[in-house]
């Protein structure tokens, strides 16, 4: 994976503008490219894409994620903290490329789905069939080739389990515990949607800063955004303190 230049504040605002109205898989690609401008994010397995988005999240908002959910037992609000480093460790156990899965007499060669696979599936008549055809490279039984869509449910289920094991950061499942009732449950963290919402809040704050500084000094937006963040905060403090 390359180590290309990450997006500037002005470019991140452009990302937010471009992503408005796009599907969640398309926005996830934008986030990955914002972290590494030289990356072809569309071809990455989902877990690798998520690892790149986690790097962006750590750079912008710090190494700890606080997730809010509702207890399934008593309906009270609950929160849990997740370390980006811990999630990186989960992703480190993934595997690259295609591999074979044997289920009874079926021989399946499959690969983890990519970000582009999700974009294509979201536009397809059947998202499930589209993903099957993308991730199953070859399916055989007794030497005969079988279309991915014709595989039995138990074979598809086993392939799905193997794919999840091969790309463990593709779906991030967390265990939450309620402080009110002590109950526990599993919840899924969609890291791309989570970071997108954080970025939207950051963007609104940044536009407010631009508004305050432009009103006070008459500077254009691009000039304000080119000022390093700490110095921009210093100017903002001078304006707000009068």
Question: What does this molecule look like?
Answer:
The chain is α+β, with helices and mostly antiparallel strands and 242 residues long. It has two domains: 107 residues, no CATH class; 68 residues, no CATH class. It has ten helices and eight strands. The strands form three sheets. Strands 3-4-5-6 form a four-stranded antiparallel sheet. Strand 1 and strand 2 form a beta hairpin. Helix 1 packs antiparallel against helix 2, helix 2 packs antiparallel against helix 5 and helix 5 runs antiparallel to helix 6. The chain is elongated, with a radius of gyration of 22 Å. The model has no long low-confidence stretch (mean pLDDT 93).
């Amino acid at each position: 994976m390359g180590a290309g230049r990450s997006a500037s504040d002005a470019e991140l605002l452009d990302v937010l503008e471009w992503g408005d109205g796009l599907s969640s898989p398309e926005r996830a690609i934008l986030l990955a490219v914002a972290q590494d401008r030289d990356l072809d994010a569309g071809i990455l397995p989902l877990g690798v894409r998520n690892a790149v988005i986690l790097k962006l999240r750590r750079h912008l908002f710090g190494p700890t994620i606080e997730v809010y959910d509702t207890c399934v037992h008593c309906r009270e609000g609950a929160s849990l903290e997740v370390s980006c480093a811990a999630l990186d460790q989960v992703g480190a156990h993934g595997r690259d490329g295609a591999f074979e899965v044997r289920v009874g007499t079926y021989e399946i060669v499959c690969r983890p789905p990519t970000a582009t696979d999700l974009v294509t599936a979201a536009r397809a008549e059947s998202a499930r069939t589209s993903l099957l055809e993308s991730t199953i490279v070859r399916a055989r039984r007794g030497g005969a080739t079988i279309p991915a869509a014709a595989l039995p449910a138990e074979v598809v289920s086993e392939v799905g389990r193997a794919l999840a094991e091969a790309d463990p950061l593709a779906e991030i499942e967390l265990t939450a515990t309620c402080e009110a009732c002590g109950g526990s449950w599993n919840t899924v963290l969609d890291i791309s949607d989570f970071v997108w919402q954080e970025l939207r809040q950051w963007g609104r704050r940044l536009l407010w800063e631009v508004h305050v500084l432009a009103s006070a000094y008459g500077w254009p937006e691009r000039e304000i955004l080119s000022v390093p963040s700490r110095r921009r905060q210093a100017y903002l403090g001078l304006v707000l303190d009068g």
